[in-house]
Amino acid sequence: MRASRFFISTLKEAPSEAEIVSHKLMMRAGMIKRLGSGIYTYMPMGLRVIRKVEAIVREEMNRAGAIELLMPVVQPAELWQETGRWDKMGPELMRVKDRHGRDFAIQPTSEEVVTDVVRTEIKSYRQLPVNFYHIQTKFRDERRPRFGLMRGREFTMKDAYSFDRDAEGLQRSYQVMFDAYVNIFTRFGLQFRAVAADNGAIGGSGSHEFHVIADTGEDALVYCPNSDYAANMEAAEAVAPAVPRAAAAQPMTKTPTPGKARCEDVAKLLGVPLTQTVKSLVLMVEKEEDGKVTKQAWLLLLRGDHELNEVKAAKVPGLANFRFASEAEIVEWFGTPPGYLGPIGTKKPISVVADRTVAAMSDFICGANEVDFHLTGVNWGRDLPEPAVFDLRNVVEGDASPDGKGALAIQRGIEVGHVFQLGTRYSEDMKATFLDENGKPQLLQMGCYGIGITRILGAAIEQNFDERGIIWPASLAPFEIVLCPMGYDRNEAVRAEADRLYGELTAAGIDVILDDRGERPGVMFADWELIGVPHRIVIGDRGLKEGKLEYQGRRDTEATAVAMGDAVAFVK
Ligand code: ATP
Ligand code: MG
Ligand code: MG
Ligand code: MG
C-alpha cells in the first residue's frame, strides 16, 4: 500500500469522551469514528486490524472443523418468543417493526436462528457432530456503551454453535473450541487467561471466559499461581464462604455533610479503576439484640445504574441472605427514599454506596458514577447503628485456593471470548431433534462460543501502548512495516530505493506501507508510532551513500543501520 492512496487521519488530541487509553489511541490514530453512542464507523486503518483479527479467528475455526455460514442481523420475533428470550432479554435486545407492524430483533447473538437451521437441516445422528459459525454484526443496546469498541452497541462477534448427539459429544466439541481459543489468543500475541465462569441464568454444565489481562479490565479474575485454578470473580465467589468477613475499621475522615465528590474519589474509595463501572452497594448491618441477630445484612449491588429492578442478584453469589431491598425497606432503614439523593433530579432512584471495605456505616458515599454527580459524607438525618465493619468481598487476595494448592491472586481482565455448554436449553424450547440409530428422536446437545472481534482491538491496545501510541502485535498490525523515505518527493535516489524496497517487500508477501506523502520526518514518525506499526525502515540520502538503511522496531529506543540488501531478511 502507498500512503498517498490510502486514508490516514491522525489527531494530536483525543476527544474528551475517550476515557481509557485504547479508546483515546484508536480515535487519535483514525481507526474509528464515532457516529452515535456505542456506534462507530470502522475507518480504513481500523478495518485492516479487524480483518486481521477475523482472518486468524476464521483460520482457527476452520482448522477446528467449524463450518462458516452467515445468519441474518434482523431476525423475526417469533423465534425469540419460542425460547422466551423476546421477553427475558429486556431493553438490551433492540427491536424493530417492519411496515406490516411485525416485530423483529436485531441480533445480539444467534442461538435461536442457528437452532432453527439445525432443526430443519439435521435429521440423523449421521450428520453429527456439527459446528456452525459466523462473523457477524451484533447489536446490544448496552446501558452504558463506552470505551470505544470495547463496549459498543453495534459490534462484530464471531459466534459458533456446536450440536452433538449426547453430553459426551458436547464435552468433546467444547474442548475442541476451548483449544481453538487458546490457539487464537496465542496467535494474537496477547497475554490472556481462561477462567471458569458462572453459568448463571442460562444453565447448562460448563462455561469459560477468555480474558485479556489489563488493569483497565472490567472483570476481576481469581487464580492460583501454583495451579490451574482460575475463575472469574462471580464463579469464585459462588464457591466461597457466605460469611461477610470482618475488616479493620478505619477512622472516619470526613465530616458527614452532603456535597459533591468527583468520580475519581468514589473509584478510589472503592479501590477500583476509574474506568470501571463502580458497583454500587446499599448495606444494612446485622443488629444484635440480646445476643441474637434480629436483622441481617442486606446488600444491593447495582452495576453502574440506578434502577432497583436492574439489580443483579447473581453478582453477589454466596451471600446467603442476599435479596433485593424494596423501596419501602430503604425508607425504613435509611429514612429516605432511594431517589432522595438523585443527581439533580435525574435518574431515580439513586444508588447508595458504601466502601467495599465498609469503614463505617455512617460514612456513606452515594454515587451515580457520573462526573460530579457523587455526594459524599451524606448525613442520613437520623441515628445510624454503631459503625459496622464488613469486607463485602467473599474472595480476597491471599485466600486459600479451593484446590488447596496455594494462595489466591487477583488480576483484572477484559472478557474477549466466552465458551458455553448449553445442553438442551434451546433444543427443548425449539424442539430441535435428530433421529438416533433406533429411529428415535433425541434432543440436540448444544454449545455456543463467542469472540468479541472488535473488542479485541481495544483489549490489544490496553496491553500494548506507550506514550507515543499503539504498539500492535505483529499479527494484528494494520501494516507490518512502514517505509519512511526522507524526501520521497524531491530526492531521486531515495525515491528509487524506496520504490525498489517496497516492491521487494510486497513480493515477499509482507504487508508494507510506503509513506510517499512527502511529509516531514517528524510528522511521518509521529503518525506511524501513533498508529503502531511494529517495524519501520527509514530511507535517507546520507545512509544510501553508504549503502545503508535505518531499521527501528516500535519498541526499540534506537535505530539500527541495516545494509540495503539485508532489509527484507531483517524484517522477516
Ligand atoms: P460483557 O460481560 O462484557 O457484557 P457478555 O458476557 O455480555 O460480555 P457474551 O454474550 O459472552 O458477552 O458475548 C461474547 C463476546 O462478545 C464477549 O466475550 C465479548 O468479547 C463480546 N462482547 C459482548 N458485548 C460486547 C459489546 N457491547 N461490545 C463489544 N464486544 C462485546
Ligand atoms: Mg453483556
Ligand atoms: Mg460477561
Ligand atoms: Mg460472556
From TrEMBL:
Q: Keywords assigned by UniProt?
A: Aminoacyl-tRNA synthetase, ATP-binding, Cytoplasm, Ligase, Nucleotide-binding, Protein biosynthesis
Q: Does the keyword ATP-binding apply?
A: yes
This entry's Enzyme Commission designation comes to: 6.1.1.15
Read off the PANTHER family from this record.
Answer: MITOCHONDRIAL RIBOSOME PROTEIN L39/PROLYL-TRNA LIGASE FAMILY MEMBER, PROLINE--TRNA LIGASE
The UniProt function text for this chain reads: Catalyzes the attachment of proline to tRNA(Pro) in a two-step reaction: proline is first activated by ATP to form Pro-AMP and then transferred to the acceptor end of tRNA(Pro). As ProRS can inadvertently accommodate and process non-cognate amino acids such as alanine and cysteine, to avoid such errors it has two additional distinct editing activities against alanine. One activity is designated as 'pretransfer' editing and involves the tRNA(Pro)-independent hydrolysis of activated Ala-AMP.
The family line of this record is: Belongs to the class-II aminoacyl-tRNA synthetase family. ProS type 1 subfamily.
HAMAP family from the xrefs? Pro_tRNA_synth_type1
Q: Per its record, how is this protein called by name?
A: Proline--tRNA ligase
Gene coding for it = proS
